[in-house]
């Protein structure tokens, strides 16, 4: 593969030459999406054993999950711009190497602090890796049925990845050690690097590109303050620290918007998010992330702590969720082509909400097959209807030179939604379980907390359905990506 750059101009009258390795590239990019998504949940199953092994406090236990999602989500916009300007394949490969190194560090850690730092580093390098992968997908599959198929595969992997992480985490924890939930990433890294070298062409934005440093600082500190403020809410919403960090987060994000409206080359061009359809898709991605990352964590706690399942059994018990997602995905892909994305994006959240409401009826002496399994199947069916069209809609109408920034926003919405959701759900859990413990101590108080989280998650998904109905409007041809754009892409 030649590394020399040449320009191909896209226009409505000339299609870009298809990459002959595009389907192999899709496999590599989908594998990347799998690893960054499943790493948000793979340690969930292992957390009880890691907590005992390293002597983690409950707060440190939560931050093992939050550190990854927070670093990932906060740095994604910067990672997307690095991919656009520096080169998407180059960024992809550097992100892969750094992610693998951080995974090894986490797998060999000897303290809770070291583990949290390693997870944060994983998130930071994933923030380079994920937007580069999605941007590469965007410029590799530019139009038509092939693009729909590619995004359907990518969306299915994104939707199932969190649940796959739970299963894989259970297997590794049971038969090896919780440490292998981190060390296993080395395999994915090697495959990804070899695949990138063989099958993926370099691409980047043209012209004189400058980094928006002030924008990067304000959005990173703003999102970090917001998530940390919500994490403090478990000790009280009215404490000065909680209010201070939440206020600082909102203020910094407002400042970020002001900065982006003034600079010539913004970190996040506001036109990417102010579009009604894309804005609605980003909001839905955030809500879906809060459920897949936040609510699923507490479902695994219920399986292990209340139902007494081993890590392997708990991981296998979550398997119906990805099976339902992958089973419904082909139908969702056909429906997307025939009726468009809007009906799927309205009905999908309603089905997920139904599954979550079902889960809210769990009891301390309940049965997995009666109280958990049906709810997970409903969740998986609904998530398939959401994830298949979601990323396609979120990137519709995006010029190739902004592919990295837009792709970063899609991923950032998922991860920030997950970290915010986890913080909010933790606060709900602590408050509800402590109140329940007054009258029904022990396992019933835990299930009361988990039930409250599932109810809150269901309400959030109903809000997502309303968002889809209000924001995802237009003809099917308008909501799906066009066949090209008047832009220039540098291909290697």
From TrEMBL:
Keywords, in A-Z order: Cell membrane, Membrane, Transmembrane, Transmembrane helix, Transport
Localization: Cell membrane
Entry superkingdom: Bacteria
The keyword Transmembrane belongs to this UniProt entry's keyword annotation: yes
Membrane topology: Multi-pass membrane protein
Gene3D superfamilies hit by this protein: MFS general substrate transporter like domains, Multidrug resistance protein D
Domain Major facilitator superfamily (MFS) profile intervals: 25-476
Keyword Cytoplasm: no
InterPro entries assigned: EmrB-like (IPR004638), MFS (IPR011701), MFS_dom (IPR020846), MFS_trans_sf (IPR036259), Sugar_transporter_CS (IPR005829)
Pfam families: MFS_1
Transmembrane segment boundaries: 25-47, 62-80, 92-110, 116-139, 151-171, 177-201, 213-230, 242-259, 280-301, 313-332, 344-362, 368-388, 409-430, 450-472
Entries under PANTHER family matching the protein: BLR6921 PROTEIN, MAJOR FACILITATOR SUPERFAMILY MULTIDRUG TRANSPORTER MFSC
Protein known as: EmrB/QacA subfamily drug resistance transporter
Native source species: Subtercola frigoramans
């Amino acid at each position: 593969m030649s590394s020399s750059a040449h320009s191909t101009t896209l226009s409505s009258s000339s299609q870009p030459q298809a990459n002959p390795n595009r389907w192999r590239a899709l496999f590599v990019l989908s594998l990347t999406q799998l690893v960054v998504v499943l790493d948000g949940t793979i340690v969930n199953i292992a957390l009880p054993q890691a907590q005992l092994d390293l002597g983690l406090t409950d707060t440190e236990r939560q931050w093992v999950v939050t550190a990854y999602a927070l670093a990932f989500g906060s740095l994604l916009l910067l990672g997307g711009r690095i991919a656009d300007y520096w080169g998407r394949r180059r960024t992809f490969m550097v992100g892969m190497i750094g992610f693998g190194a951080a995974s090894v560090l986490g797998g060999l850690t000897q303290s809770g602090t070291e583990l949290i730092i390693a997870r944060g580093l994983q998130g930071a390098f994933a923030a380079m890796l994920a937007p580069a992968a999605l941007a590469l997908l965007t410029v590799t599959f530019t139009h038509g049925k092939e693009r729909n198929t590619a995004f359907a595969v990518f969306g299915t992997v994104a939707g199932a990845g969190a649940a796959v992480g739970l299963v894989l985490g259970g297997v590794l924890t049971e038969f090896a050690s919780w440490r292998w939930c981190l060390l296993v990433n080395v395999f994915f890294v090697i495959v990804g690097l070899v695949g990138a070298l063989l099958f993926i062409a370099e691409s980047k934005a043209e012209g004189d590109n400058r980094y928006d440093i002030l924008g990067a600082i304000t959005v990173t500190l703003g999102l970090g303050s917001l998530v940390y403020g919500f994490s403090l809410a478990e000790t009280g919403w009215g404490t000065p620290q909680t209010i201070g960090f939440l206020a600082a987060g909102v203020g910094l994000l407002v400042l970020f918007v002001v900065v982006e409206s003034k600079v010539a080359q913004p970190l996040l061009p506001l036109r990417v998010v102010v579009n009604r359809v894309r804005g609605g898709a980003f909001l839905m991605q955030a809500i879906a992330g809060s459920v897949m990352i936040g609510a699923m964590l507490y479902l695994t706690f219920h399986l292990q702590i209340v139902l007494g399942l081993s890590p392997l059994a708990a991981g296998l018990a979550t398997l119906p969720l990805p099976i339902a997602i992958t089973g419904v995905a082909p139908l969702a892909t056909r429906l997307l082509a025939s009726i468009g994305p809007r009906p799927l994006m309205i009905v999908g959240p309603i089905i997920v909400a139904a599954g979550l409401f079902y889960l809210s009826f769990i009891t301390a002496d309940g049965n997995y097959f009666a109280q958990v399994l049906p709810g997970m199947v409903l969740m998986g069916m609904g998530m398939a209807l959401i994830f298949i069209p979601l990323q396609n809609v979120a990137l519709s109408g995006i010029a190739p030179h902004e592919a990295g920034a837009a792709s970063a926003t899609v991923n950032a919405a998922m991860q920030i939604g997950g970290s915010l959701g986890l913080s909010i759900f933790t606060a709900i859990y602590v408050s509800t379980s402590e109140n329940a413990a007054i009258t029904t101590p022990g396992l019933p108080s835990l299930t009361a907390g988990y039930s409250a989280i599932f109810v809150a998650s269901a309400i959030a998904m109903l809000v997502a359905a309303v968002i889809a109905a209000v924001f995802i409007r237009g003809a099917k041809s308008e909501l799906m990506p066009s066949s090209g754009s008047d832009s220039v892409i540098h291909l290697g």
